[in-house]
């Protein structure tokens, strides 16, 4: 069993996250992708983010029509900071021992991987898929150089279609009253409107 993990703040989840997960799933023949909204992202301390309940609801709405996409509450239900290394340990306890985990990261997040809590231990525990934009250069040595040579085979690059979408841009569009159609799944947009999210951020 090959399980992809798409972690994020998902504030809100958008089509860039979904298209990337789908492209990586296809490229590596993953059986399933687990979307894991983070509770208190260590790198976003001090920034205003939507309640975990809202981010979880949007993540479920965005993924529920895909038969192989699932949502995990492992980080939201855990107390204390959200560290990926703890998440992997928890998932390893709940899946059969032969399961391979593939942690999917955008190139921006991959460049910060070495700053994550217990990064070397984490890279030894699971594979990392660095989703880079099709047709653009990306120097994997920028990621590899921070890790021991033996663990570098756990760092995999997959080219995915470039979708110029970010949650920051979506929040900004909502605040300005601009359209977010085609940037997020329709049920996510409906939820954002119904709950009046991001109007004042
Ligand atoms: P923000 O603008 O608030 O930082 P974001 O759009 O970057 O939000 P995150 O929840 O921070 O979304 O990202 C979760 C993961 O998804 C990260 O690994 C990030 O690199 C990746 N990601 C985000 N946007 C895209 C995109 N358009 N294409 C591919 N990967 C993406
Ligand atoms: Mg981001």
How would you describe this structure to a colleague?
This protein has 201 residues and is of the alpha/beta class. The protein is 37% helix and 18% strand. It contains 9 helices and 6 strands, in the order βαβαβααβααβαβαα. It has a 6-stranded parallel β-sheet. Helix 4 runs parallel beside helix 6. The mean pLDDT is 94. The chain binds adenosine-5'-triphosphate and magnesium ion. Adenosine-5'-triphosphate binds next to helix 1, strand 4, helix 5 and helix 8.
Topology:
Blueprint: E1 2-8, H1 15-28, E2 32-37, H2 52-63, E3 69-71, H3 74-77, H4 84-94, E4 100-106, H5 107-110, H6 119-125, E5 127-133, H7 141-144, E6 155-160, H8 167-176, H9 186-194
Parallel strand pairs: 1-2, 1-4, 2-3, 4-5, 5-6
Helix pairs in contact: 2-9, 4-6
The structure holds adenosine-5'-triphosphate and magnesium ion.
Adenosine-5'-triphosphate (ATP) binds next to helix 1, strand 4, helix 5 and helix 8.
Kindly list the characteristics that best describe this protein.
single chain, about 200 residues, alpha/beta, 6-stranded parallel β-sheet, 9 helices, 6 strands, binds adenosine-5'-triphosphate, binds magnesium ion
């Amino acid at each position: 069993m090959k399980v992809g993990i798409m972690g994020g703040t998902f504030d809100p989840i958008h089509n860039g996250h979904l298209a990337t997960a789908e492209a990586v799933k296809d490229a590596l023949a993953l059986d399933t992708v687990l979307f894991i909204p983070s509770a208190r992202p260590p790198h976003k301390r001090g920034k205003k983010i939507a309640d975990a309940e809202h981010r979880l609801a949007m993540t479920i709405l965005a993924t529920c029509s895909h038969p192989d996409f699932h949502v995990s509450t492992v980080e939201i239900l855990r107390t204390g900071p959200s560290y990926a290394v703890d998440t992997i340990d928890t998932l390893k306890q709940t899946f059969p021992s032969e399961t391979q985990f593939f942690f999917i990261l955008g190139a921006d997040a991959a460049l910060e991987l070495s700053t994550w809590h217990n990064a070397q231990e984490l890279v030894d525990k699971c594979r990392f898929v660095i989703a880079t934009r099709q047709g653009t250069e990306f120097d994997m040595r920028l990621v590899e150089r921070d890790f021991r040579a033996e663990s570098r085979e756990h760092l995999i690059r997959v080219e995915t279609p470039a979708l110029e979408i970010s949650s920051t841009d979506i929040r900004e569009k909502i605040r300005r009253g601009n359209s977010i159609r085609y940037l997020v799944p329709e049920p996510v947009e409906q939820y954002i409107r119904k709950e009046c999210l991001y109007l004042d951020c």
